[in-house]
Design a protein that fits this description.
The complex is a heterodimer of chains A (about 260) and B (about 290). Chain A is α/β, with parallel strands linked by helices. Chain A contains eight helices and eleven strands. In chain A, helix 3 packs across helix 4. The chains are: A alpha/beta (about 260), B mainly alpha (about 290).
């Protein structure tokens, strides 16, 4: 069964279309890179998958059903969080929110014990046991992302939606986190969609790319999507794709490429 | 009522226990401790969420709205507590309607706050008598609290306590991780409305003790200290309540023997503790 299926899907707000014509099918365990410029509508696709907004037209199925809010089979790591430097709340408490946050009332002692056990297991998956008893403001950007990844993994989801987890990380940490997500996705058989600006850290691990540009959305294998022809078509402007000897890719607008040539 | 104290209290003796026992003989002090304890528990508990949701300014503004309500009630010949509750509730609903990012709406909240204070001034100027009851809400009047008000405070306190217990985990999730909480199916608007109504209720009862102008003393400072000292939210709530309780009891006890306002001693004790905690933490982080 397809984990996520989009047919002629379009998204927008009121009368404004952000993108249209999305057709893709994602299978269990696939690692998908979602790329596009700022404001292209990447997070909008996440909102549709989470049931937080409705498609303008077309059809979207998540695990065979129309998306609804509060789907426990989706783990979500949003783009940015405010981290209060006055707060000393330990990282494990944030992880634990994934286990009980949407429940009413207060955790009874035996429930709390179970929640902590689940939180430790999730932290182990991201190799984050040593982060558990530290306040968030004392963690590095990559460590914070691991904590929230652990939170998203609570309840063993089938789908992980990661919104720019690589933002503000240096190159080494970008690669570390990408490898970690890949390892978790493989071991847990989770379908991952990861939003990023730069395709390079994703290249060693992604099975598929979804690219949004100029109100259009394309999906396919990396080699199919990241080509001068496809991207020029998506951007409605000449785009050049360069690859170096390590297989790393740089996507350049033609004006930019000409500027570098001169 | 402070005048009463100057006649009753003649300074501390060398035996604080005796001082405590002799203070306890006065009915108005028993009332003050009863009301103070209820208010400290509620303010400390709700205050923790006010702080982690970054709604301190909103809580401050609600207390000012409450003052205008109390002044309006005095003008209409009603119990000021009724006006206080009505205006803080309306203010809470108005803030919730500002949307999920109410904490970032300082300009809007400030504008409404100024208008509310203007209304309060108008109501007082329209009142032909001397609006002592409304004025007393500016600085608190715990020593003059009546048995009826204690019952009202207890009822409001119970509602607040049950409200927080019911919402606890959802409140925490939306406070610390709003986007994920929403994705998990929690209605952010619903929680905002419910919480601001609880803040309105807590504010209404807390201003009797510390007054509109010093609401931060019980609702924000103990929680601000607690979040710097604790690593688990439930511990944070407990420490915040404990600090608010101790400050209230110390304030009442000291004010019985020293002829200055209770609210001054409450504010001073939490402020002093806040300074100490910040100082110690900045020293330990430098070490």
């Amino acid at each position: 069964m397809a984990v996520i299926e989009a047919k002629d899907l379009s998204a927008g707000y009121q009368d404004k279309i952000i993108w249209k014509g999305a057709n893709f099918t994602l299978s269990r365990g696939e690692f998908v890179g979602l790329l596009g410029a700022n404001g292209a509508g990447k997070t909008t696709l996440f909102k549709l998958l989470l049931g937080l907004s409705q498609p303008q037209s077309g059809e979207l199925k998540v695990l065979g059903s129309t998306p609804t809010k509060g789907n426990p089979r989706i783990g979500y790591v949003p783009q940015r969080r405010f981290i209060d430097s006055d707060s000393r709340i330990h990282a494990i408490e944030y992880v634990r929110l994934g286990a009980y946050g949407n429940k009413w009332g207060i955790s009874l002692p035996n429930t709390a014990k179970r929640e902590y056990e689940e939180s430790w297991q999730a932290l182990d998956l991201v190799d984050g046991r040593e982060l558990a008893n530290k306040p968030l403001f004392k963690l590095s950007g990559g460590e914070v992302q691991r904590v929230f990844l652990a939170q998203a993994l609570i309840g063993k989801p089938d789908i992980l939606l990661l919104d720019e987890p690589l933002a503000n990380l240096d190159i080494r940490r970008e690669h570390q986190l990408t490898r970690l997500v890949h390892a978790v996705a493989k071991s847990q058989q989770v379908t991952v969609i990861l939003i990023a600006h730069d395709i390079n850290p994703l290249l060693p691990v992604v099975n598929r790319i979804i690219y949004i540009a100029n109100g259009k959305i394309a999906s396919g294998k990396v080699d199919e999507i990241v080509t001068s022809e496809t991207l020029s078509d998506l951007y409605d402007a000449p785009v050049e794709v360069l690859r170096d000897s390590h297989g790393r890719v740089a996507v350049l607008g033609v004006e930019e490429a000409m500027h570098h040539d001169s | 009522m402070t005048a009463n104290l100057t006649t009753l209290g003649s300074g501390f003796s060398l035996n604080l226990w005796n001082d405590l026992v002799s203070m306890w003989h006065y009915g108005f002090m028993q009332h003050a401790f009863e009301a103070g304890t209820i208010v400290a528990v509620i303010a400390g508990m709700i205050g923790y969420f006010v702080v982690i949701r970054r709604l301190s300014f909103a809580a401050h503004a609600l207390s000012h709205a409450g003052f205008s309500g109390a002044a309006g009630a005095v003008l209409l010949g009603l119990n000021p507590l009724v006006g206080l509750l009505a205006f803080t509730t309306a203010g809470g609903l108005a803030m919730a309607s500002l949307g999920r990012r109410a904490a970032n709406r300082d300009v809007q909240i400030g504008t409404v706050l100024a208008f509310m204070l203007g209304l309060g001034v108008l109501f007082i100027s329209l009142y032909k008598g001397y609006a002592t009851e409304a004025y007393s809400l500016l600085f608190g009047e715990i020593l003059g609290i009546s048995s009826t008000n204690i019952v009202l405070t207890m009822a409001a306190g119970l509602v607040s306590l049950l409200g927080v217990l019911l919402l606890y985990r959802r409140l925490l999730f939306t406070s610390l991780d709003e986007d994920v909480a929403e994705a998990k199916g929690i209605s952010i608007t619903g929680i905002n409305v419910a919480f601001l109504l609880l803040v309105a209720l807590a504010t209404s009862i807390a201003v009797q003790i510390v007054g509109v102008l010093l609401i931060f003393a019980l609702m924000v400072t103990p929680a601000a200290i607690a979040q710097r000292l604790t690593h688990r939210p439930l511990e944070g709530v407990a420490v915040s309540v404990l600090i608010a309780l101790l400050a209230t009891w110390i304030g009442l006890f000291v004010a019985f023997y020293v002829p200055y306002p209770v609210s001054f001693f409450i504010v001073s004790s939490v402020f002093l503790l806040y300074l100490i905690v910040r100082l110690l933490q900045s020293r330990s982080s430098r070490a």
